[in-house]
């Protein structure tokens, strides 16, 4: 893990860990390790880079491992042409989601792309406020990922904008989301109506 304080960058290595030391959760496909990071000073800018590796002194990926998160604090790109993505996976029992976000600074908009949604807009917060919105999930979206896209406004520029987002299902349970979509990047399925010639 890389911890940055001002311009000072420090690397910390945890482990090694045997996979079976994690908590066995079959619904997530195996053993799970939880890492909670909390900033202890300041009110903004506590950012970290994490890497799951087989080595203590270099980043070498662990085959078959992946990371997901429940509450995500991250910095939006400063380049207005860059789009940030998260990919929650919709199991067959999810019929609705509630998304909550904090401190968006009115910096653009958030939308969902899925087999059934072609840019459905989610609520986005202003400075230092929480907002939420609810969205129905259809059968066409079951057993696939949603592409939640965070698109910055063109101007005025909001630089180094740190935001928080999380999702809950219809029962109020936190939902995991991934930086790589399970099953591939979802695309909207257009339906074209064709009338027979009379």
Secondary structure topology:
Blueprint: E1 2-5, E2 8-11, E3 23-25, E4 30-32, E5 48-49, E6 71-75, E7 83-90, E8 96-102, E9 109-113, E10 118-122, E11 130-136, E12 144-145, E13 147-151, E14 162-169, E15 177-178
The biggest beta sheet reads: 6 strands, antiparallel
Helix and strand composition category:
mainly beta
Uncertain regions: pLDDT < 50 for 5+ in a row? none
Number of helices: 0
What is the CATH class name of the largest domain? Mainly Beta
Question: Outline, from the CA principal axes?
Answer: globular
Rg calculated over all Cα atoms: 19 Å
The amount of beta strand, in percent, is 35-45%
For this structure, the CATH topology of the largest domain is: Jelly Rolls
Q: How many domains make up the coordinates?
A: 2
Named CATH architecture of the largest domain? Sandwich
Average predicted local confidence, pLDDT: 85
Q: How far apart lie the N and C ends? A: 67 Å
What percent of residues adopt helix (DSSP H or I)?
Answer: under 10%
The tally of strands reads 15
- Secondary-structure element order, N to C: EEEEEEEEEEEEEEE
